Amino acid sequence: MKRITLDYSKSLNFIGQHEMENLQPAVEMAHKILHNYEGAGKEYTGWLELPHSIDNKLIRDIKNTALDVQNKCDVFIIVGIGGSYLGAKAAIEMLTHHFHNQLASQDRKAPEIYFAGHHISSTYLKQLLDLIEKKEVCINVISKSGTTTEPAIAFRILKRFMENKYGKEGASKRTIATTDKEKGALKELANEEGYKTYVIPDDVGGRYSVLTPVGLLPMAVAGIDVEEILEGAKEALKDTNNPNIKENHCYQYAAIRNILYRKNKTIEMLVGYEPSLQYFGEWWKQLFGESEGKDSKGIFPATGSFSTDLHSMGQYIQQGIRNLFETVIQVEESIEEIVIEAEANDLDGLNYLAGKTMTFVNQKAFEGTTLAHIDGGVPNLIINVPKLTPYYFGYLVYFFEKACGISGYILGVNPFNQPGVEDYKKNMFALLGKKGYEEERKALEERLK
Ligand SMILES: O=P(O)(O)OC[C@H]1O[C@](O)(CO)[C@@H](O)[C@@H]1O
Predict the structure, then answer these.
(1) Which of 71, 125, 172, 429 has the fewest C-beta atoms lying within 10 Å of its C-beta?
(2) Ligand 1 mutation target, pool 145, 150, 183, most atoms within 8 A of CB
(3) 294 an active-site residue?
(4) Is the pTM of this model over 0.90?
(5) What ipTM describes this predicted complex?
(6) Domain-wise residue ranges, the chain
(7) Is position 401 annotated as part of the catalytic site?
């Protein structure tokens, strides 16, 4: 199996090799407190051993449920927000056909897959209901807390739709809840309605939950090989277990981003040249944004889909404020290939590319862009990925989770909490008139006058 590698040679104009070695003690300390479960947020580090600890019985159960959904449904709806949908969405976008949903009614076994509950748009939800009206539907509602407003509203509406369509009992048989093992409104509802349920472990936070039923069930329904994903994650676990920075590319990545941050490179763009990586970037943004953005610190995580965004953001990246660095996910082998053919009249002037593949052109775009951006003062870290397969998806997930934990500890924050997210919720509840928020409501309404 070809390996994922990190190439940081394109950052060496900006940092010295010795600077990374200077961080060895900090990395070692971060490794020690993470692995000994002694660091801040230690109660949420169950993800560390997940690739090994996940039970075979659970995997079999997930696969059976997925098969049942595939047999019963034209449409599978995943209701969740943040860590309760981004991992599944990232995998499905990366690993299934670009036009998966359009192919659904033809000859594939997986149903069409849609997401809901990741915002509060009535237009989106109404149009989704219109789309699925005449189709056979199954739903997976996912919420660790079981109380998040966005998925709760979407699920209330979808539940009514399902009960009108299938009756109460029929709807229950088509609804799966993934939530806490005992607490939260969703757990209570699932018990009451008799839904099939999957448990999100107590010690795994939302953004670290891709390799639990949160991510694995939707992936299995989409026809993705979840065992291969876990194999990739296991390999990453092994590769990232060594505290010696010289021998651990995950820790090199964690250290370099901290070195660059201390040199005012406060924005990291995760960049890819395949559009199927877009939601992987969204997943990565939550992972690093929620983990490190606190105590008035943290790299701002952003994404770029190249070459598309070179025609919109390229100017800024090349010549704007020099506070950026890029981490590029460079894919070595395409899933599909197209060769550019010669044209007799060559009116578009592209005959110089005749006989070349589009992947070759994409590779040259990557090489040219990397050199231009370095020349423009943007350090580049390159993560070489042999191919976009379930194995490498699993590897990347674990690689970035581990890097995030280590990087957060080097930064001096608790990488496993997200206290700041509560503030908007408090205001929203107050403005909506939720019981218990009366005082806050008065104060906020005063400010809105
Ligand atoms: O799974 P839940 O509890 O609905 O939470 C969804 C998301 O909301 C947050 O808790 C932030 O409010 C994220 O950390 C989490 O991934």
Answers:
(1) 71
(2) 145
(3) no
(4) yes
(5) 0.98
(6) 5-38+230-411, 49-224
(7) no
